[in-house]
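User: Mind token order:
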Amino acid sequence: MLPLIAVALAGFVAAIPAAAQQTPDRFEANVAAFEAADKTAAPPKGEILFVGSSTIQRWDTSRYFPDLKIINRGISGSELADALKYVDRIVLPYEPRLIVVYAGDNDISAGWLSEQVAVIFERFTRAVHAKLPHTKILYIAIKPSILRWTQIDRMRSANAIIRAYCERDDRLAFVDFDTLMLGWDDKPRPELFVQDGLHLSPLGYQIWTAVIRPYLVGPEQVEAKR
């Protein structure tokens, strides 16, 4: 598959706004902690990996998916570019059959253009598939939130580009919670967030869990339920 996003939007990549520039190795301690934990108890390979920002880090995957083997490598405050930067250390070693990604929220808030976020996601998928060509990647769209509601247009624009990209590859899937998270007034439902208006409440995670579960269940789980 041709690098559709990168070719069409190459000009945006070179113009990263100053607000979005990253501090070198700002999450090195987090990644090193993951590596240390892996040396103590190595996670199984060929399972499910969750990567992304605080929405992933806060997701108690052992509680919400007790029947599945999930490795959670979320890092609070991280951007999609961080998942790409550390792909060799927090993704590839686990050789996951499926990767669930939630990132892009912080990117938009930091000043990245919608098109730039989409380009970084493409680069992430290509970095994964260069070494793990059969691994599937599920991208959870950038969510609408109370705190960042003024940025919703840019978030939806990024989501639209990423959705179109995912539709061109059977190894990619896209899940959008936009409609489910809005109330009658077309604004984010307060009960789906904790007090900060950004992070998900238990009810929010319950909804997300129910929707993505079918994507996570592999053939072995289907057979076991028959």
